[in-house]
């Protein structure tokens, strides 16, 4: 009796299957790379825009809540900006409110930040440039310090800033004067009309 050895075919991937898997990996990587890049490079145009908007919102909210004029102080040379209390301004006067015995019945006022103190500060990335600053219809692009006032009634000075990124991306942030709410313009053709 002769014993025959039966050879089973080995299980393996064919060249076509390997190429399909490589193609799928390539497609997934192509979709994932932009999002990974944004996570690894947070100093993007979007971060700069959100920092400027946050500073404007901070200045407006502090002005309204504290009943005092706040300033957004920009220093274009080093690309920094801070929210500070305007010098020479004080909080609203407190109305007298006494009980029947003639004693003040309300809690004491909370301490207010001292005049000129910085409430928040931001710095734009080195890759972001400031292309233009307008304040009350005048060009302040070449000034060392620009101060935008935010008033206790929720209004502000007329203000816009144009920033540019390394890839040619340009944004204009405009403050609505009557509400001090920031708006973003992305179309450079519309910058001149503002």
Report on the structure:
The protein is built from 2 helices and 9 strands. With 194 residues, the protein is α+β, with helices and mostly antiparallel strands. It folds into 2 domains: 14-39; 44-90 and 111-190, minor pseudopilin epsh fold (3-Layer(bab) Sandwich).
Poorly predicted runs are: 111-115
Taking the sheet with the most strands, its summary is: 5 strands, antiparallel
- CATH-derived topology of the largest domain: minor pseudopilin epsh fold
CATH superfamily of the largest domain: minor pseudopilin epsh domain
Shape: elongated
User: In what range is the share of β-strand residues?
Assistant: 15-25%
How many angstroms separate the termini?
A: 99 Å
Rounded radius of gyration (Å): 29 Å
Count of domains:
2
Lateral arrangement of strands in the main beta sheet: 5-4-7-8-9
Mean pLDDT across the residues is 82
Helix percent band: 10-25%
CATH class of the largest domain: Alpha Beta
Tell me the layout of helices and strands:
Blueprint: H1 15-40, H2 45-66, E1 70-75, E2 80-85, E3 118-123, E4 129-135, E5 138-139, E6 146-150, E7 159-164, E8 170-175, E9 182-185
Antiparallel strand pairs: 1-2, 1-6, 2-3, 4-5, 4-7, 7-8, 8-9
Summarize the structure.
This protein has two helices and nine strands. With 194 residues, the chain is α+β, with helices and mostly antiparallel strands.
Which properties best describe this structure?
minor pseudopilin epsh fold; alpha+beta; 2 helices; elongated; single chain; 194 residues; 4-stranded antiparallel β-sheet
């Amino acid at each position: 009796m002769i014993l025959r050895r039966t050879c089973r075919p080995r299980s393996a991937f064919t060249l076509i299957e390997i190429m399909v898997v490589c193609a799928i990996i390539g497609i997934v990587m192509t979709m994932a790379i932009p999002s990974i890049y944004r996570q690894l490079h947070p100093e993007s145009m979007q971060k700069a825009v959100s920092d400027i908007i946050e500073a404007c919102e901070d200045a407006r909210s502090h002005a309204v809540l504290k009943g005092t004029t706040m300033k957004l102080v920009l220093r274009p040379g080093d690309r920094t900006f801070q929210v500070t209390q305007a010098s020479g301004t004080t909080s609203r006067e407190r109305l007298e409110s006494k009980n029947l015995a003639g004693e003040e019945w309300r809690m004491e006022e909370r301490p207010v930040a001292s005049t000129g103190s910085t409430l928040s500060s931001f710095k734009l990335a080195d890759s972001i440039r400031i292309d233009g600053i307008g304040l009350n219809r005048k060009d302040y692009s070449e000034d060392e310090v620009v101060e935008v006032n935010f008033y206790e009634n929720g209004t502000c000075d007329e203000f816009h800033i144009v920033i540019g990124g390394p890839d040619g991306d340009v944004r204009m942030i405009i403050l609505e004067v009557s509400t001090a709410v920031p708006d973003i313009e992305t179309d450079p053709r519309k910058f001149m009309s503002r």
